[in-house]
Amino acid sequence: MSRMWDGSGFFKMMAANEKAVGDLYRELAKNAKFGGKFFENMAKDEDKHHDIYVALLHKYENSKGLEIEISEEQEQYLNLLIQNNMLRDPDLLIEKAKKLTIKDDVFDIAERAERDSVLFVEELIELYPELQPDEFKVVLKEEKAHLRMVMERRMDSQLTNLKL
Asked: Which residue, among 26, 17, 23, has the nearest Cα to 54 in the 3D structure?
């Protein structure tokens, strides 16, 4: 059975997540041990993604443009993504990040955030193919590049630790 679902909550979560990841990366950039410029540059991309989601939310939220017909199972899945994403408490995450001293732990958090971002953008593209498809594709490409870069840095860090 299908039902109407208002995706504005999903867009709000996406905007909040991008802001949280940007803030997290700025916090990590303060510690040069973890790759200051690397995280600064990634934070700038996250800010750009945030602005895209906020603009789309403002453009479509009041016009019912984010209401779509989905199955009950899909609605349950999407609601779980919104409720259980790792960035739902960004202040707690940033406080945790401030206390990290091991590079692998830093890259683990970044990797999980980027994996979630890729998953969420793919969901948006599937749910809203008519909304800004080129911008979503650019965001998806950048999120995948972030994930790749974080995973490469994590692997390099792990290899360096093995050599010690």
From this structure: 17
| Amino acid at position 129, single letter | P
**What are φ and ψ of residue 85, in 5° steps?**
-75, 150
Domain borders along the chain are 2-163
Say how many CA atoms lie within 13 Å of 48 toward its Cβ.
13
90 touches 19 (CB < 8 A) = yes
CATH 1.20.1260.10 fits 2-163, yes or no: yes
> What tens digit of pLDDT does each residue of 110-158 get?
999 999 999 999 999 999 988 877 888 899 999 999 999 999 998 987 7
Please list, in sequence order, all residues whose beta carbon lies within 8 angstroms of the beta carbon of residue 68, skipping any fewer than 6 positions away: 4, 5, 7, 127, 128
Give the bridge partners for 4, in sequence order.
Answer: 69
Burial class (CB in 10 A: 0-12, 13-18, 19+), 20: buried
CB 36 within 8 A of CB 29: yes
Classify burial at 131, counting beta carbons within 10 Å of its beta carbon; exposed 0-12, middle 13-18, buried 19 or more. Answer: middle
Read off the pTM. Answer: 0.88
Residue type, 39: F
